[in-house]
Amino acid sequence: xxxxxxxxxxxxxxxxxxxxxxxxxxxxxxxxxxxxxxxxxxxxxxxxxxxxxx
Length: 54
Hints:
The chain is mostly helical. The chain is built from two helices and no strands. It has a domain of about 30 residues.
């Protein structure tokens, strides 16, 4: 199911963004945090779609 791939990709994106944030001295940490939150929200949306489609 393609939506499961979307959920996995959003989870991976949040992971990599957190890793980048923690291992680098970034000037724009607010932007990274916003992107992490967006990836988490997308993961929740995709999870909800998967649950409702069962």
